Amino acid sequence: MNIQQVIDDINADVRSRLSQFEGAVASYIPALAEVDSEQFAMAVHTVDGQTFSTGDVEVPFTIQSVSKVLTLTLALQRYGNSLWHRVGKEPSGTAFNSLTQLEFEQGIPRNPFINAGAIVTCDALYSRLSAPTHHMLETVRWLSGNPRVCINQTVSRSEFQHRHRNAAMAHLMTSFGNFENDVEEVLKVYFGFCAIEMNCQELARTFGYLANRGVDIASGERILTSKQNSQLNSLLFTSGLYDAAGDFAYRVGMPGKSGVGGAIVAVVPGQFAVSVWSPKLNAFGNSSAGLYALEQFADRLSLHLF
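Structure tokens predicted for Glutaminase (306 residues):
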């Protein structure tokens, strides 16, 4: 398959209709509202170490909820199956920041990819790591191949200043005995993870291990056991795009994770990780152009897992 030609064709197609895609950039975080919506990038990182890219691939962006995959990865390394006593493995069927479901289910978030689930997973990491932010940055720099990857402090501060709903989730979990550390300190770490900034090529490289049975492609070092990697990909397939995960599975047919910064990462086990980025979001908080691009990519290369 000529991956470069395929993604170049998709880039041309997407750019011809960027203004027509539904939605707008995330505005509930002021620092994200300033991003130019008329941008698009796509990158593929194969299990044999090749990277293909097209579009605005040099433009950095904050990865937002895509970071939840990394948070879960680090937590699984330290807790294994015991992590699942604190967070579930089921699709939520509700908005990513729902409080109602969290209270109804007595402080146990449905899965680690909704906000409450990622926050409690971050809390678990905070209990095991003396410097979780430093450890996360070192991990991302290594996986992405860029030792200069950093946190966008402007975005991180903006998210912390508007933390109230996420803080409410953390306090609610505390009331049910499912939170171990100071809420404010954990949220600072959580928002720092969300504000990690990289470009589309680096993002695809970072998640190459998910396509390679849990092994980092560049170094050959194991990140997750093969079973953990398969389980994580299964969770991405059922829950990675919030309450639009079913539509993504139907249209694209790959495990994936989105973020309100406009990025989506998807995985074809045994072949490659693919990332897209375009800031305009649909009603579910997923990149409109990114979803279209991944659907085209899956169709043109016949990539649906089933």
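Residues 109 and 116 are 6 Å apart (CA to CA).
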